[in-house]
Amino acid sequence: MRAARLWRALIGWPMLAAGCFYLATIIGSLIGTNTQWREAGADGVTIYVETNGFHTGLILPARAEGIDWHELFPPQDTILPPGGADHIGIGWGERDFYLSTPRWSALDPATLIRASIGSDRTLLHIYQMRRPAPGRYARPVRISVEAYRTLAAEITRSIAFPLEGPLQPLPGYGRSDVFYPATGQYSAIHSCNEWTGRVLRTAGVRIGAWTPTASGVMRWFPERTTPR
Questions:
Q1: I need a surface site. Which of 24, 71, 148, 188 has the fewest CB within 10 A?
Q2: Which of 32-41, 79-88, 183-192 has the lowest mean pLDDT?
Q3: SS3 for 97?
Q4: What is the pTM of this model?
Q5: In whole angstroms, what separates CA 85 from the centre of its chain?
Q6: Which of 14, 172, 25, 2 is nearest to 93 (CA)?
Q7: What is the pLDDT of residue 13?
Q8: Three-state SS at 68
Q9: d(CA 150, CA 130)
Q10: Residue 180: helix, strand or coil by DSSP?
């Protein structure tokens, strides 16, 4: 009897909690929001919802509809040749997890657990890009100009602006990316993928009510080989 209670305490209850959490992520990602949303026509702005299989983010035109992301995130902060980027990739996540995991083979379970419990040390990951290719890992979506401006305002709220001067970058993984200080608390409930979902929901795009996993985000955007 004592062994059974110990087994439940150490293994049974944690497994049950993990199973319930996993089920909740599926249900939350299937409950659609903004049900009246439709893709915009030719006068809209094409963005991309991107993933590497675990993490999701957004790819936006560097300049569109009066919004110039290069004013906030200058290509000069990277080591790319000048003038080569016409899009930026934007993701949000936990600082230690980002900085210590340049490759999934470098994943430290302890770092993942600490981040999942909760951390207010967050970063924006910015890629300078040129002509993103639609496909499995980058799904094009055309949104209205109004929705794009709302989306841009929501992203801007995630930037931890310094009291004076420009944003100070941290080195990225390669030649084309850097990190910047961000706002917000990361956890298993409010993950990098839920950040992507929240930004899209705020802009009026139809997506799941809660999207803490990459699959929960990407299921809402069909794979295409060309932008609309």
A1: 71
A2: 79-88
A3: helix
A4: 0.90
A5: 20
A6: 172
A7: 44
A8: strand
A9: 24
A10: strand
